[in-house]
Amino acid sequence: MNPTNNQHVLNWLNEMAAMTKPDNIVWIDGSEEQVAALRKEALASGEIIQLNQEKLPGCYLHRTTWDDVARVEGRTFICTKTKEDAGNINNWMDPAECRAKLTKLYTGCMKGRTMYVIPYSMSIVGSPFAKYGIELTDSIYVVLNMEIMTRVGFNVLEALGDSSDFIKGLHSKATLDAENRYIVHFPEDDTIWSINSNYGGNVLLGKKCFALRIASYLGRKEGWMAEHMLILGVTYPDGTKKYVTAAFPSACGKTNLAMLIPPEVFQKQGYKIETVGDDIAWLRVGSDGRLWAVNPENGFFGVAPGTNEKSNPNALHTCMKDTIFTNVCLNTDTNTVWWEGLDNNPPVHAINWKGQPWDYHTYDKADKVNTSGAHPNSRFTAKATNCPCLSPAFYEPNGVPVDAIIFGGRRARTAPLVYQSTSWQNGTFVGSIMASETTAAGAVGVVRRDPMAMRPFVGYNMGDYWAHWLEMGLKIPHPPKIFHVNWFRTDDKGNFIWPGFGDNLRVVLWILARCAGKVDADITPIGYLPKAEDICIDGLEGITLDTVRDLLSVDTAAWLEDVENIKEFYAQVGDHVPQAMYDELAALEARLKAAR
Ligand code: GTP
Ligand code: SPV
Ligand code: MN
Fold it and tell me: N vs C: which end of the chain shows fewer Cβ within 10 Å?
């Protein structure tokens, strides 16, 4: 019995089943009984391992295959009718060609398996922001993760009714063959096809595939925005609440900022931090003329390594129950989990992320992937509702009004601790030149430009995406102010100068003070910079006013070098780059040269 009469859903389901030929088809109804039964099945097959239920109630461990441990950008495609619509930054394949190629791989791939049909919603079912999807998958691991990360259940089918307005996602782990792994998007057709992976962002199709790539495409068409942003709420001692969103590239600190613990001096004054989201924000113009944000997800797929009682206690407590760990280290004495940076007591008897006995003495910082207990990109999938600092606004169908948008990346030298753009257009430019430095062992940092942290996630031409940002600016009567931060400046020895984590609140408070018009700033060639004394360093050991001055310094020569790199990147993005972005770039260069 099908739980819906929606012919669009049923016809598509029949077509996909005829191609993949599963033995059974099972609808996922969102009930705890069904999830429990599937968990039992996954335990029996070894797909998941039950952890110590006293210490970690409801927690399980899963290991992926060794070559399936992260998103695969090289195998991710945007299949629009023309290559130009996908742009130069995306991989492109002709839609018909792609379907033909993947049809061969999908044909019969679910023989002997069950196909699970997961109706899910991104955002609260029935809310103004909500968009619906159905994911077909042959992986119980995917079902269990989707059930945490999205809102799964038959109420989605009810809300959908007879409509064809849903995103059609097909996933098969097939043979997990890396050579034939594909994550492909047909934005013109509301369709996602993923095959030969069973890892995170490749297979939890509601997340990057739908909520960013497909949604960014829809947002452009419908006049809203889908962004790779956390949403953070700050409550002031007088009870006032302010919200900021922040876009940092993958593994650059979104989850950490979203769940930060205020430094003691601020706690004593009564400041509080609330998390609305840690990875994705959907943004719409509200009837009050402000920009409003929701987190379309229902859980966190967070990086485990580095998460500890000091860096991010909120994340740690969130994943102490009802959590699926992927590729972390197993302590076989206690049947609990461990990862690098959890504490200084690596397990004496352990199984590493590869499933092998592991001796922590063999750990070599220069070869983390092969010598660490947990994979550097190992993750926890945890429920938002288990987060101690979850904002009540998480449940608000209309989301929260945004005062500031913050961009950031890992820059060893160029970007100062914080600066403010001079307008929405200038802020869009600041987003477009975002970058991060990857520090490979021994090598100097390689700069990777990652506009708005969306380089791997824009479902169309990057130049058109910037144009959409500019157009949105014209549609928001009271737009948020746009800032850029950098927690990652290093000293001569390569150590981070700024303490980061909870202390980043000090910078966020300056940002909000600027938005409220409560603090002055210095105008520089790159934008407004704080006066050093306006970044509160009360109670911060080892940081003086001079350290802050140093963190706020702008190295003109380094910036001019960066400008050359930006020019190359713009050329690569190609002829859809809006003229206004070139004007901003030329103006920045002229200001830097004048200041030299
Ligand atoms: P994705 O889930 O991949 O999108 O990552 P993310 O942006 O949420 O990054 P996350 O918060 O998980 O942080 C990734 C890494 O950056 C971790 O190893 C953190 O310890 C480190 N990190 C986060 N915030 C800071 C900071 O303020 N300073 C420093 N030095 N490191 C930080
Ligand atoms: C990211 O890479 O930005 C993530 C992890 O949040 S994944 O869901 O795998 O994309
Ligand atoms: Mn992310």
Answer: N
State the pLDDT at residue 444: 61
Q: What is the DSSP letter of 259?
A: T
Q: How far from 464 is each of 87, 248, 458, 493, 575, CA to CA, in Å?
A: 9, 21, 10, 41, 10
Residue 441's pLDDT is 53
Catalytic pick among 59, 109, 252, 515: 252
Query: Is 252 one of the annotated active-site residues of the chain?
Result: yes
For residue 565, give both structure tokens: 């790199």
CA of 500 to the centre of ligand 1 (A): 10
Distance CA 269, CA 255 (A): 24
Report the DSSP pairing between strands 272-277 and 281-285. unpaired
Ligand 3 geometric centre to CA of 523 (Å): 32
- Nearest-5° Cα angle at 390, 329 to 505: 90
CA distance 146 to 71: 16
Kindly report the pTM of this predicted structure.
Answer: 0.98
Ligand 1 pocket check for 253: Cβ under 6 Å: yes
Nearest one of 431, 122, 380 to 246, comparing CA atoms: 431
Backbone dihedral region of 171: left (phi > 0), alpha (psi from -120 to 50 degrees) or beta?
Answer: beta
Q: What is the pLDDT of residue 443?
A: 54
| Per-residue confidence (pLDDT) for residue 439, from 0 to 100 | 64
Those residues whose C-beta lies under 8 Å from the C-beta of residue 570, and which sit 6 or more positions away, are 577, 581, 582, 585
Taking CA atoms, 465 is separated from 75, 224, 419, in Å, by 21, 11, 23
The Cα 512–Cα 532 span in angstroms is: 16
Please name the residues in contact with 199: beta carbons below 8 A apart, sequence gap of 6 or more.
Answer: 64, 68, 69, 70, 71, 326
Burial 193-206 (b: 16+ CB within 10 A, else e): bbbbbbbbbbbbbb
Share of the chain above pLDDT 90, in %: 98
Rounded distance between C-alpha atoms, residue 274 and residue 241, angstroms: 10
Does the Cβ of 207 fall within 6 Å of ligand 2? yes
Binned at pLDDT 50, 70 and 90, residue 440 comes out as low
C-alpha angle with apex 266: 310 to 311, nearest 5 degrees? 15
Interval between CA 479 and ligand 2 midpoint (Å): 28
Mean pLDDT of the chain: 97
Going 298 to 377 to 507 to 285, the CA torsion angle's sign is: negative
pLDDT at 438: 80
Ligand closest in space to the Cα of 64: 2
Q: Write b or e for each residue in 207-237: b if 16 or more Cβ atoms lie within 10 A of its Cβ, otherwise e.
A: bbbbbbbbbbbbbbeeebbbbbbbbbbbbee
Strands 166-172, 131-137: pairing is parallel
